[in-house]
Each structure stands twice: as C-alpha cells, then as structure tokens.
Amino acid sequence: MAATPPHMDATLPRVETTPVGLPGWLGTVIWFARKKPLGTAGALVVVVMVVGAVFSNVLAPYNPLDTNYAAMLQAPSASHWLGTDTFGRDILSRIIYGSRTALFVGLGASILGSTIGAVIGVASAYFGGWVDLMVQRLIDIVMSFPIIVLALAVVSILGSGITNLILAIAIPFMPRIARVVRASALAIRETPYVDAARAMGFSHARIIVRHMLPNVVAPYLIMLTAFLGQAILLEASLSFLGLGVTEPTPAWGLMLRGAAVEFAERAPWMGIFPGLAISAAVFGFNLFGDSLRDVLDPKLRTS
Amino acid sequence: MQRYIIKRFLLMIPTLLGVAVLVFVLMRVVPGDIVELRYTLEGTAVSDELLAQERARLGLDKPVVEQFATWMWGIVRFDFGKSMWTDNPVKDEIALRLQLSLQVAIMATIFATLLSIPLGILAALKQDTWVDYAIRVFSIAGLAMPSFWLGILIILGLLIFFRWLPPMFYTPFWVNPWENMSQLIWPALAVGYRYSAVATRMTRSSMLEVLREDYVRTARAKGLWENMVIVRHAMKNAILPVITVLGLEFAFLVGGLVVTEQVFNLNGLGMLFVESVARRDYTMTQALVVLVGFTFILVNFAIDIMYAWFDPRIRYG
C-alpha cells in the first residue's frame, strides 16, 4: 500500500503516478480520493459548508434576521424549503448563515487552542526538569474537568458573545494538545540541530518557535482537525444552553433552543433541520480528520 | 503491588488540591460577587453598608487566604458549608441531584457497554466488509450527533408516535421504579449512543491490534476453536483500553450531562452547576468542581491500578 502522496514520496518519479497533464496538487487530490473514499466524503461536506459560509448572502433565499409575522411556523413549502420559525424567519436561510457562525467559532477555537497548546507542549519539553514537571501537573489539573464543564465555566465567567465563546472552547483543548505535542517534542529536543541552535546562542523563544514547532506539525494538524468537529459541537451545545451566541445571530445550536422543543409537535421542522446541519458538519469534519490522521501519522496507519 | 497503590494514591492528593486552588481562585477573579448579583437583581438601590453586612455574614470580608483555609479545613472534615444562595447545606443540595445524575450515568454506561463491545468485536472480525463499514458509520454518526439533539428527536418521536411524554418530575427508583425508569431511560439512551460510539471505535481498533499478535496466531495454529481464540486470548488483552474509555466517559457523565439535562428538564448536577456559576455561589460551585474533579481522578486511579494488576511490567517499572 502506497500511503504517501506521490509528490511527497521522493523514491517515486512523479510522472508515473500523477495523471499526465495535471498539476501536482490535483494528482494528490485524486490519490486521496481513491485511497480514502470516506475521507473524501468528509472533505466534500467541509467544502459545502465553507461555500455556504462564504456565499451565505448569495445562497440564502431570505434575510436570516427578517421576521414575518404573517408566516409564522409554516411547514416546509416551495417558498420556505425548510419551513419557518416562531418569528416567521426562514429556517433554510438561518441554517446557511449559521454555517458562518459554526465555521468561525470552530476554526477560531481549534486554531487558537491548538496553537497555544502546542507552544506550551514544546516549551515544556524544551525546558524539561522542574518547568516540565510543573506544567505537566497543571495539565493534569485542567484535564480533570470534562471539556464541556470547563468551557461552560469559562463562558459563564466571561459572558456570552463570539470572542468569549471561542476562548471558552479553546481553553479545554490546550492541555490535551500540549500533552500530545510534548511527547513528540521530547524526541526533537535531543536532535543535533537543536543542540546546534543552542550552541549558536539563539534565544529560547527562537529555538522553540523556529526550530522545534515546525517539527511537530503532524501531531498538531491531527489534533487540530480532531478538534474542529468537537468545537462545532461545543459551540452548538453552549448556544443551546443560551451561553454562547445570542439572538438574533443565526446559529444552529441556538435554533434548537426553546421554541424548537415547545413546538415540537406543531412544527417539528424547527427541531429537525438545524440538528441535521450540526450532525452533518461534525460528521464531515470527523471523517476528514480521521483520514488525514491515517495519511499523516504512519504509526497509527494500522487500522 | 501494595507499594504501587500507595504511591499512586498519594499522587492523587496534589492534583485534587490543585483543582481546589484553581476553582477557588477562578471564582474570585470573576467580576461580580453573589451579594452584588443578588441585590442588583432586585433593581432597587442598596446601601453599601448592607452589602458589606451581607458579605460579612457570608465570610467574604475575610482575607482570601483565610477563606481558603476555612474551606479546606471544612473539606477535611467532610463539611462543604452552606450554599451562599439558598443557605441550605451544600451536601444536601448535591445529594438531591447526585442520585438522578448518577442513575442516568450508570444506565448510559450499561447501555453503552452492552452495545459497544459486541459491535466493536464484530467490526474487527469482519474488517473491511460491509458489516465493518456499517458499524463504523453508525459509530461516527454517534460522535457527530449532538446528544441534546438526539434528546429532542426522542421527545419528538414519543410525541408523534405514542402521543406520550416522559413524566416531568423526578421519582426516586425505590419509590416507583416504573415511573422513575420511564423518565430517566430517555436521557440515558440519548447520551448512551454517543458514549457507545466512542467505546465501539476503541473496541474495534484495540481488537484489530491484538488479532495481529503472535500469540493469537499460535492459538489458532494449535487448532483452538475460533470462539475460544477470540474470547480467551484476544478479548482478554483487548479489553483494557475499552474499560479505560468506558471509565473516563462515566466520570465525564457524572458532571457533564449539562445539555441533556436541559432538554429533558432534569434537575441534575449539571443544571445545578450552571445555576451556581451564574449566581456566583462560591461554596456550591467549589464543591461541585471538587466533586467532578475527584470522580475523574478516582476513575483514573482505578484504571491505573487495573493496568498494574493486569500488566506486571507497569508495577515494577
């Protein structure tokens, strides 16, 4: 089984594996699609979501904030494909705009959490000894909170709003990635080029950021993609509790709050479609992340 | 083994202490304290004198270090103080909810175990067939579906197909088992699905790893009955990581049911936690966080001991 993309594998001449006339990246895409059909399905969902988020204003048939009391709780129809909510707002439009919120918070929280966590992990491994011991104990402590409990505590402390939400979701991710990255960084610390960098008298910060961080990119990316789905799920959960995004911003979790349960019988579409959107998005990100992990991490490739 | 248990047990103390310090500091860093919150809620102007008086009553006027010492001394004597909001003993308030949360967590664990272990083994044995794919898609879907949405769907389904809703109020199991189950089985199913998804994936991958081991090949080569090979040789070794995942998820459920409780309108620990943080009820929040942290640390401890029990290399390492 050839599990390295052709253009990355130096032992294979590129012409042999890439279809003639195609640029290298497209060859990689085709290779990935053949090798990982489930991952490709996941990637497609991700692409659909990104397109939906970027072109919300073109794709959405209505303004997601426009209330229309003449069209409250309407069942799915030709004019409102997924029906309307208690304020007569178009559910399809709110779902399309909601992908912006989900993607923004999901990406923001995962990137922020993974990056800070990775720096902590590498620094902990680099300094070793006393610093490492303290950082690891601190990680133990933070990790003894369930992710949702910690995120909830942070968001109740900071107050709702998108920036606070991103921070609240990012914080529980940090110790988790720090631990994984530290394990990889421990091996890197012993390599000659880090010794060399130290001998040249570079600052700690420079060695950590310029010399060690680039070498933990694989675990970093694996954790980052694994966090994406979780972050979207957490955003939905917190918004559902009324602690995340606030009305009238369209957000999937928020759409399931309150009226969706109260009017479950009269207007089930209010409770069904936003949940489908969350599940599809998380499903896509998880599938894509799994396959990416298989490709990036040879040690985990067995299953 | 004894020495290992004692060493590992003593290691729990600094972590737990750390959790206590962290929550104590965090609560006090938060803007707005309970006194301010309660009186500004009523909207009328309150004299600073009254606020100070109220703070003194709750012991909030003392130096922070002294407050911490008092709290710690209480914990040592298993006394968590009174809730600052309701004035009831924290222990009673928690006991009331713990019953409910613990029952849901236990039922979800049973459901998840019964579902995930057979499915995971089946998927591993039929690797890369349609059975495997179906089980994998089922479990990935479980990870993707928010359990609160599954809860909404369950309620929706009960309403539409049976024109029936679960009871609104909690009845303890020994008072009326039927009433109790008909309320709590649904949230247990909703969180149990997600839970089983995690465990199924773990069972599958750990089973696949073990099935490739030499001793499994040896067992097969000497002509052992296939079921015997799987149960006695493979499963015995594959089960540890699965128990780990089950244990950790259980610890998570005790405090992490927050969102599902909201859907089913259950008055459990999660709900209490959200309320306490919002009210800046220091004593209650601190006790809850220490309880959740303690559960998690205890489960981790149990898992480590189990590993050492099954694998002598850890004990003597």
Description:
- The complex is a heterodimer of chains A (303) and B (317).
- Chain A is 68% helix and 0% strand.
- Chain A is mainly alpha-helical and 303 residues long.
- In chain A, helix 5 (91-127) packs across helix 11 and helix 11 packs antiparallel against helix 14 (269-296).
- The longest helix of chain A has 37 residues, at 91-127.
- Chain A starts with 13 loop residues before the first helix and ends in a 7-residue tail after the last helix.
- Chain B is built from 14 helices and no strands.
- Chain B starts with a helix and ends with a helix.
- The model of chain B has no long low-confidence stretch (mean pLDDT 84).
- In chain B, helix 6 crosses helix 8.
- Chains A and B meet through helix 6, helix 7, helix 11 and helix 14 of A and helix 1, helix 6, helix 7, helix 8 and helix 10 of B.
Q: Say how many strands of chain B there are.
A: 0
Number of helices of chain A: 14
Distance separating the two termini of chain B: 11 Å
Order of helices and strands of chain A: HHHHHHHHHHHHHH
How many strand units of chain A? 0
Q: Low-confidence segments of chain B, ≥5 residues, pLDDT <50? A: none
> Biggest interface, and residues per chain?
A-B, 43 and 45 residues
Radius of gyration of chain A: 23 Å
Given as residue ranges, the uncertain stretches of chain A (5+ residues, pLDDT < 50) are: 6-18
**Element-level helix/strand string of chain B:** HHHHHHHHHHHHHH
β-strand percent of chain B reads under 5%
The overall pLDDT average of chain A reads: 83
Portion in strands of chain A: under 5%
**Major sheet attributes of chain A:** none
| Oligomer status | heterodimer
Termini Cα gap of chain A: 13 Å
In which range does the helix fraction of chain B lie?
over 70%
